[in-house]
TrEMBL record:
It comes from Flagellimonas maritima. PANTHER family: IONOTROPIC GLUTAMATE RECEPTOR. One of its GO terms (molecular function) is ligand-gated monoatomic ion channel activity. One of its GO terms (cellular component) is membrane. SMART domains: PBPb (SM00062). Residues 1-19 form the signal peptide. Gene3D superfamilies: 1.10.287.70, Periplasmic binding protein-like II. Residues 25-356 form the Solute-binding protein family 3/N-terminal domain. This is Glutamine-binding periplasmic protein.
Amino acid sequence: MRHLFVILFFFNAFSPVFSQVESDTLKVGYTPAAPFIVTSNESMHGINVWLWKQVAKELDLKYKMVPMEFSAMLDSLKAGRIDISINPLTITGERSKHMEFTHSFYASHSTIVVPKSTSFQRLMNFLESFLHINFLRGFLLLIFILLFFGILIWLFERRRNTRDFRSNAKGIWDGFWWSAVTMTTVGYGDKAPKTRMGKIAALGLMLSGLLFVSGLTASIASSLTVDQLSDNTNSFSAFKDQNIGTIKNSSANDFLKVHFFKNIKPYSSVLPGLTDLKNRKINAFIYDEPILQYRIAKDSLLTDLELLPIKFDVQFYAFGIAKDKVHLEQRISQAILEIIETQKWEILLSEYGLNEI
C-alpha cells in the first residue's frame, strides 16, 4: 500500500513536467519529395532535411519526425495535428487561409513529362509537317510564280531565241525550267534571255524571287517548327483534352483545374504517376520541375521519359506551420533567411543539381 502511495505521489508530482516536455516537442510531418526530402534505408537526407536540421539546431527546437502521405499531411497541418511540414510546399492564397508559411527558400516552376518519341515517330512527325496547310499554300504560290514568269519569258523569247526557248508548246517547259533555275540561284547558264523585254522580265523574277524565297523560307521554317511542336505535344494547351497525371491536392493540380484541364488523374506520390506514364496509362505527368527532374535522373527505369522545355506556374517553396504557431513561424523564417544567404546553401543546391531561378 505504501509503495502504491509513493508511485501515485511521484506520478502526480512529475506528470506536468512530462506533459510540458511532450508539448514542447514539435511534430514535424514529411513525405518523400526528392531532392528536397529523400528517404532510403530508414535514413533521410535532402535539401529540406538539411535546412530543417540547421533551423532546429540554431533555435534549439525539439522535434519528432512523422512520415505521412502528402494529402494527409496537409489535412493534419490544417487541423493542428502536426506542427510543421518540412515538405517544399507552394505558397498559395487558399493554403494561407489554413496554415502559416515561413519565408520562401526556393522558387521553381511546374513542367510536363512525356514518354520519349522513337526515331520513327520523330520522322513521321517531320514528314507530316509538310502536309501543313501553310506549307502547301506557299508551295502552290511558288509554282504559280515560276509558271507565270516561265510563260512570260517564253512569250518574249520564242521568236528571236528559239535555241533556248522553243516556239511550240514545249517552250513553256523551257521557260518554267529557266525561271526555277533563276529563282533558286542555281544558274546553270543553259538558257538566257536575249530580248530587252525578256531581260526586264528576268530582272523582275530575280528581284521578286529574292524577296519571295526569303519570306517563304522563313514561313515554312516557322510552320514546320510550330507543327512539330504541336505534334510532339510541346504545347501546354495541347494537353487539355488528354489524360494528365499530377499529385493530389498539389498546387499543380489546382493550376490544371483553373486552366480547364478535363481529365486529371491524381496520385499520392510522383513514382506511381511516372510509372503509369511509362506504361502509357496516361499521356503526360505535370508537377514541380526539380522533383520530376531529380526522380527521372536517379531512376534507371524512367530513362524513357523526358521533360518538355515548358515552364509555367511559378512556385515559391516554404515550410508550412500550424495556424496557431505564428510566433514559431517568425523565428523559423528569420533563421531560414540567415541560412539561405550563406555559401553553404548555394553549395547544397549545386550538389543536388539545382540553381536559383
